[in-house]
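Notebook entry, structure prediction.
Reason for the run: the old model in the group folder had no record of what sequence produced it. Starting over properly, with the input documented here first.
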Amino acid sequence: MNIKDIANKCNLSVATISRVINNDPKVADSTRKKVLSVIDKYKFVPNITGRSLRTQKSNKILVLLPTMSNQFYSEIIQGIEETAEEKGYAILVAVTNLQEHQEIKYLHMLRMKHVDGCISLFNTIEADAITSLAKNYPFVQCCEPTMNADVSSVEINNRQAVYDVVKQFIDKGHKTIGMISGDYYKTSELGRETGYQDALRDYGIKFDKNLVVKNFYRYEDGAIGAKKLMAYKPRPTAIVCASDSLALGATSYLKSQGIKVGVDVCVMGFDNTSITTYTSPTLSSINQPRYDLGKESFKLLYEKLQDINSVNKKIILPFQIIHRESTGCDN
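New structure, fully documented this time:
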């Protein structure tokens, strides 16, 4: 198959196909998606780079991040990089800023074989597109597997992590427990919110939707969430947050109102980023094994690099609940 065949399949001109192949930013997103879908289906490699693309490797892999502002990703990248280096691969890190067109642009590097494989820490494109991509190219997901996509992935059990925290709060006598969640990372959010609701139900506490606040993941969103929860009657005596940034925003607001964190209200974060031990009070958090998440994601990718038809795997790594001053503990 050549570029003319692709043009005929798409009912587009050869010039348009060429612009897509060369990543021309003037190409409409809908056109780009259509062409890349056909390229994926027929495993087309453009003749401009010749036969060498079919027979040689770049020994580079692409790592897609949704943002650079979250320190959570740094240790994951380290795990990927060090494990990849052992196998002779270098990594290229690209940031999508949660924009679909940016994601499509970078994944173009995988389709054009500028990189040998890709590890993505978050995807905006739909499940069917992810399934198709993973079927034809070495591609795995880390931390945020796309729901209903058939792709190798590694994560923790987000539902169980929050379930266990809520159970611990209930065991300590808390009867009104709030949650500050996000509103973008659908897979982990669903798991964490489900764990919260399931624990309340299983231990005889009625779920109240007013005790769940959803926004984004900035510090100010945590403060806004805590303000809303504290205005509710009866106000919660414990709060579970979907990230450390939300938890830190919440503790900041509580302190500003003269509420003693870890005494009057307990606060639990999520991810156990390095800042948790440098705040006052120190922040309790659910630890994700970030280095191992990176390490295992590359191992999954390496299997696909060796055999694209290898069976997709779903790996769940253990989490750890770490109590510090924000939940009334000092260790």
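Summary: The first strand starts at residue 60 and ends at 65.
The old model has been moved to the deprecated folder.
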